[in-house]
Amino acid sequence: MNDKVVFSQLSSKFIDENEDTPPQAQQVIYYGLAIGHHLGVIDCLQAVLNCPWQEYLLWIATLEEGSEAQRKMTGIARYGEIVIDSSHVVMLANAFSVALKKQTEQQQSWSQQLLHMLADIHQESAIYLMVRRARG
Question: How far apart are CA 10 and CA 43, in angstroms?
Answer without folding.
Answer: 7
